Amino acid sequence: MRARTLIPAAVTALVLALAGCGTDGGSAAGASAGPEQEASSPSAPASQAGETGGGTAEVPEALEFTATTLDGEPFDARTLAGKPVVLWFWAPWCPKCKAQAEETARVAAAHRGEVGVVGVAGLDGTEAMKRFVDETGTGEFTHLSDENGEVWKRFEVTEQSRYVILDASGETVYDGVLPGGDGLDEKVAGLAG
């Protein structure tokens, strides 16, 4: 009897996760958000993550989490406190995510030091995630391996190719899909500097 209840719930969750690749919706408000790092590897160590000005910025609740980078290094989102943050939730097999990669990397480079940009990979294994970063040329900012979906759950993300953008105080100012990354630079530029 219990299996009859669990199986439909599991199927529903899987369908929602997979259907996200075909969704173009977005909203101006939503869940809290998280991290960024600037380094030359897909998962730079947390010590290189978006360092705050004097290290005295108040840490908003949205950045009170830790994770693991694609290289297995610890990541502490608190290092991003005091500046805007872009969290890009992606899956390695998602064509919409691949289409967003170039613009996301360009925006991360253009706003390095001003805005934290962090990729949050999920819905696959770490090796596939590393291949995605290599193939898309997005290794200049940090990517987290969220195989267990903890960061996705924290920000209530139910579909890949989704951006969660936080202002410097940790408030969510955008939560949605930007096809091809269109509009990301405008949203980030309005928060930077």
From TrEMBL:
<protein>
    <recommendedName>
        <fullName>Thioredoxin domain-containing protein</fullName>
    </recommendedName>
</protein>
<dbReference type="InterPro" id="IPR013766">
    <property type="entry name" value="Thioredoxin_domain"/>
</dbReference>
<feature type="compositionally biased region" description="Low complexity">
    <location>
        <begin position="29"/>
        <end position="50"/>
    </location>
</feature>
<dbReference type="InterPro" id="IPR000866">
    <property type="entry name" value="AhpC/TSA"/>
</dbReference>
<keyword id="KW-0732">Signal</keyword>
<feature type="signal peptide">
    <location>
        <begin position="1"/>
        <end position="19"/>
    </location>
</feature>
<feature type="region of interest" description="Disordered">
    <location>
        <begin position="26"/>
        <end position="56"/>
    </location>
</feature>
<dbReference type="Pfam" id="PF00578">
    <property type="entry name" value="AhpC-TSA"/>
</dbReference>
<dbReference type="InterPro" id="IPR036249">
    <property type="entry name" value="Thioredoxin-like_sf"/>
</dbReference>
<dbReference type="InterPro" id="IPR050553">
    <property type="entry name" value="Thioredoxin_ResA/DsbE_sf"/>
</dbReference>
<feature type="domain" description="Thioredoxin">
    <location>
        <begin position="56"/>
        <end position="193"/>
    </location>
</feature>
